[in-house]
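Person: I keep going back and forth on a fold encoding question. Show me how you would write down a chain together with its backbone fold. Please set it down just below, with no commentary around it:
Helper:
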Amino acid sequence: MGRSTLIGSVCGKIWGNTKCLFCDSISEVHYLEIVKGGYCSKHSHKNKWNRFVVLSGILEVIIYKENNEDITTLTKAMITDVQPGIYHRFQALDEATVLEIYWTDNLDPMDIDRIEDQGGGVDKKQENKVSEQIKAAPISFPTDDFPPSRILDEDVHDKLI
């Protein structure tokens, strides 16, 4: 495949370090530990979407559009996406741990062939509670443009990670 990122390897960066948790031809997941004040270079990705999921700390994601900046400030359990072709950078306002997820538009979320009707392990009452919490999770849009931020209820967030 010619991948330069080794799954499980830790790569030191000037802003902290990153560990590749998963990597294939259409997606990657990295665990970032960013020091307070640490920031990455201003960059874009030709084909990849970039998602930031803050696990702890405070992270700014700065989007550069024409002559202005769109700054989204994320805290624990907040998420934002950056679409392909958009210049951006992140900066930690406080020490932060973050999942950074990359994917391409070629990924088909309906690519699943079930041979059983349902899974198991959560009673119906708990399943309904989690489902309602996800539906009720507030969504905030820092601008009328992209990217959206989603804030998850902490109970829902803890169940997801």
The first strand starts at residue 10 and ends at 13. DSSP finds two helices and eleven strands in the chain. The CA atoms of residues 49 and 83 lie 5 Å apart.
